[in-house]
Design goal:
By secondary structure, this protein is of the alpha+beta class. It contains eight helices and four strands. A four-stranded mixed sheet has the order 2-1-3-4, with helices on one face. Helix 1 crosses helix 6. It is globular and about 45 Å long. The two termini are about 20 Å apart. Bound molecules: glutathione.
Length: about 200
């Protein structure tokens, strides 16, 4: 059995989508970040960074329990444990790793920068917010161009790179829809990923 500690952020969704799409049984423990449930001694014992998501697999490698934080580490863990959604051909692996890292380390941190810089008190610094918004748009333009030529994030095979990208995309779509509008190939792709029953289950926080 697996325990997942998460909230409905892009990182939380990435981990939950991973478990659902890899068909791994788990119990969800919603963590209320506003109430500081990620700062309790029990939570910090699992992840001293005090960040969701955290996954505890009681039947980890060698049958021993293992605790994993970092949404993309959880994504890789689930794919490797289940043998699902990784490229079948080793020659496709470099493009897959590139797409996965591009989704995990460009998209979500930029989304976080937009959300967090918009919240600065007493007044957000507009040029900074706009700088991150322009960066976001430049990333989406590249993804849109890529998805004009390939069906999925890493090529013509569905992989966890799609799941990573989708978690960021769908979070932004809900928060600031205009920042995902105007990218027809991404829209086509997001409709397909968002219609997957496992992904739909994962989005219901
Ligand atoms: N790189 C980490 C980032 C995790 C992260 O930033 N989690 C946020 C929510 S999306 C969090 O728990 N923030 C609460 C805090 O830092 O106090 C990952 O991919 O999991």
């Amino acid at each position: 059995m697996i325990d997942l500690y998460a909230a409905g952020t892009s990182n939380g969704m990435r981990a939950r989508i991973a478990l659902e799409e890899c068909g791994l049984a788990y119990t969800l423990h919603p963590i209320n970040l506003e109430k500081g449930e990620n700062r309790t001694p029990q939570f910090l014992a699992m992840n001293p960074m005090g960040q969701i998501p955290v996954m505890v697999d009681h039947d980890g490698p060698g049958g021993k329990p293992v605790t994993v934080s970092q949404s993309s580490a959880i994504l890789m863990y689930c794919a490797e444990k289940s043998g699902k959604h990784l490229p079948r051909n080793p020659a496709d692996r470099p493009a897959f790793l590139e797409a996965l890292m591009r989704a995990s380390t460009d998209i979500t941190p930029t989304l976080g920068a937009i959300f967090n810089s918009s919240k600065i008190k007493p007044e957000p610094h507009a040029p900074t917010v706009n700088w991150f918004k322009d960066l976001w748009k430049s990333y989406l333009k590249v993804w849109d161009d890529l998805l004009a030529r390939r069906k999925y994030a890493a090529g013509n095979e569905f992989t966890i790179a799609d799941l990573s990208l989708f978690a960021g995309y769908v979070r932004m779509q809900k928060a600031i829809p205009e920042l995902v509008n105007g990218y027809p190939n991404l829209e086509r792709w997001a409709k397909e990923i968002g219609a997957r029953p496992a992904t739909q289950r994962a989005l219901k926080f």
